[in-house]
Design goal:
5% strand, FLX/FLX-like, two-stranded antiparallel sheet, coiled coil, mainly alpha, rod-shaped, single chain
Length: 170
């Protein structure tokens, strides 16, 4: 009996050891099942991502084409803008040259009027082409060169080179 009791205790220890090993195997199995489930989910996600790749390539190609089209449009408009700026600069130079030419011509006109008629104040229209000052009598042929009141000559002379001025009443 003592042998049976000693053998029963050994069996009990072996049984406890086997029970402990079963529990650790169950725990290991649960951990492996969780890892397999996580790996399966990651694999499914990767598979879904791989299925999206052709669509993403297509979208990337369309964006690349759109970029190329916009870049070509930008370059074209940039060229047009450069051409327009160059034209505007040329027009500006021409305007400056024309302004200088106008200044030269006005100076020549003033000089010629000064040498021909004496000093002339500018007319209301801003031009210096005609003598608009009535204090200078017009050139007359025949009769008296004297003017009687209000700028009227003593006899009806023939006026040479006189263009009547428009005072805005006509």
């Amino acid at each position: 009996m003592e042998v049976d009791i000693g053998a029963g205790e050994n069996v009990k220890k072996d049984l406890q050891q086997a029970h402990f090993e079963v529990q650790s195997m169950v725990k290991a199995r649960q951990e492996l099942t969780a890892k397999i489930q996580q790996a399966s989910q990651e694999l499914q996600k990767t598979y879904n991502d791989l299925r999206k790749i052709p669509r993403l390539h297509s979208e990337l190609d369309s964006w690349r084409k759109e970029h190329q089209r916009l870049h070509a449009t930008f370059q074209h408009e940039k060229g047009l803008n450069i051409e327009q700026v160059e034209n505007m600069q040329a027009m500006e130079k021409n305007l400056i040259l024309m302004g200088r030419e106008v200044d030269k011509l006005q100076a020549e006109i003033r000089n010629s009027e000064l040498t021909f008629h004496g000093p002339i104040p500018p007319s209301f229209s801003g031009g210096h082409y005609l003598n608009s000052n009535t204090s200078y009598p017009p050139s007359i042929q025949g009769g008296s060169a004297y003017v009687v009141g209000y700028g009227i000559p003593t006899m009806m002379p023939m006026v040479v080179n006189h263009v009547p001025e428009n005072d805005g009443f006509w």
